[in-house]
Specification:
alpha/beta; 4-stranded parallel beta sheet; 41% helix; Rossmann fold
Length: 113
């Protein structure tokens, strides 16, 4: 038996937003007095430390935004051969974690200094 998976309609994908959409979300949430928390990382090799980090961040505010480093940034930070997974897949994995389903996430590259 062969199972085929489709990305279309994936709940995890629906929680990934682009930077311009994120700006609108943040502005709206701030108007309602929400405390917004940003957590960021490569999340290339997901481990318990990542889960604990995100759970702790989630408890600090009303809206958790998780930034996923771009492939280029992950390569600069982690070295040759990294990331093991492309940024879109890393974002989908983080977005699929049950504990964060009520929160929004975005994928973005940190601005160059």
């Amino acid at each position: 038996m062969t199972l085929k998976f489709q990305q279309v309609g994936s709940p995890a994908l629906s929680r990934i937003v682009k930077r311009d959409e994120l700006i609108t979300i943040v502005e709206t949430e701030r108007q309602y007095g929400k405390k917004i928390i940003l957590a960021n990382g490569c999340f290339d090799v997901l481990h318990v430390g990542h889960v604990r980090y995100l759970e702790a961040a989630r408890m600090l505010g009303d809206l958790l935004i998780v930034g996923i480093n771009s492939d280029e940034q992950a390569r600069r930070l982690k070295g040759k051969g990294r990331p093991l997974l492309p940024q879109d897949q890393r974002a989908e994995i983080i977005s699929s974690i049950e504990a964060f389903r009520a929160h929004r996430r975005t994928t973005f590259a940190r601005p160059q200094a």
